[in-house]
């Protein structure tokens, strides 16, 4: 039997058990470059573990998903966090799940505001990059190096993810 998940608006408080919301709102900031640039400092915790781990900076180009979404798989990265910052002005869908004795619990879905990113904590179950409406580029900061940094889980029955009705 398929269960339905309604995507909630992304907030710092609701997402805190899974990582950080990347936004300038409320961030520690100060001027640099002779006052011509404002630095929004230390927005997320980059977690790198394991042998020979290193930080990677990449661009992912996501194709859009149709809604409602049939969620069959989540993944996690036991050796590092994974941050996604959209390089486009559209919202995207973020799916996470609590860990319940080594397997994902019931997923939660969040809809970002345009221009807001997320940093998924190390070893947190999450859905794949879920772009909406049209193709979109994301700046991604995650872990490279030795070791297996990917674990996938396929649900026995899919979840249906929908946006809330206006």
What does this structure look like?
- The protein starts with a strand and ends with a strand.
- The longest helix is centred in the N-terminal third of the chain and has 4 residues, at 12-15.
- The chain is globular and about 60 Å long.
- The protein has one helix at 12-15, and strands spanning 3-9, 19-22, 29-32, 37-40, 54-62, 69-76, 82-86, 92-97, 99-100, 103-104, 108-111, 117-120, 125-126, 130-131, 136-144, 151-163.
- It contains 1 helix and 16 strands.
- The mean pLDDT is 96.
- It is mainly β and 166 residues long.
- A hairpin with a 2-residue loop joins strand 9 (99-100) and strand 10.
Summary, kept brief:
This protein has 166 residues and is mainly beta. Helices cover 2% and strands 51% of the residues.
Overview features:
166 residues, mainly beta, seven-stranded mixed sheet, 1 helix, 51% strand, globular
Q: Main sheet?
A: 7 strands, mixed
Number of E-type strands: 16
CA radius of gyration is 16 Å
Shape: globular
Structural class of the secondary structure composition? mainly beta
The average pLDDT value, as a whole number, equals: 96
Task: Provide the β-strand percentage band.
Answer: over 45%
Unreliable residue runs:
none
Separation, N- and C-terminal Cα atoms: 26 Å
Count of helical regions: 1
Secondary-structure element order, N to C: EHEEEEEEEEEEEEEEE
Helix content: under 10%
Describe the secondary structure blueprint for this structure.
Layout (H helix, E strand, L loop, with lengths): L2 E7 L2 H4 L3 E4 L6 E4 L4 E4 L13 E9 L6 E8 L5 E5 L5 E6 L1 E2 L2 E2 L3 E4 L5 E4 L4 E2 L3 E2 L4 E9 L6 E13 L3
Parallel strand pairs: 1-11, 1-16
Antiparallel strand pairs: 2-12, 3-4, 5-15, 6-16, 7-12, 7-15, 8-11, 8-13, 8-14, 9-10
């Amino acid at each position: 039997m398929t269960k339905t998940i309604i995507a909630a608006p992304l907030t710092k408080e609701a997402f805190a058990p899974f990582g950080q919301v990347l936004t300038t709102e409320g961030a520690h900031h100060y001027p640099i470059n002779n006052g011509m640039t404002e630095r929004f400092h230390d927005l997320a915790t980059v977690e790198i573990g394991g042998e020979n781990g290193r930080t990677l900076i990449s661009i992912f180009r996501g194709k859009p998903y149709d809604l409602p979404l049939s969620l069959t798989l989540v993944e996690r990265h036991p050796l590092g966090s994974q941050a996604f910052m959209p390089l486009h002005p559209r919202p995207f869908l973020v799916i996470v799940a609590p860990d319940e004795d080594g397997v994902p619990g019931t997923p939660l879905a969040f809809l970002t505001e345009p221009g807001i990113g997320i940093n998924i904590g190390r070893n947190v179950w999450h859905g794949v990059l879920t772009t909406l409406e049209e193709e979109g580029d994301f700046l991604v900061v995650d872990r490279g190096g030795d070791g297996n940094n990917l674990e996938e889980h396929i649900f026995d029955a899919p979840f249906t993810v929908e946006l809330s009705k206006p």
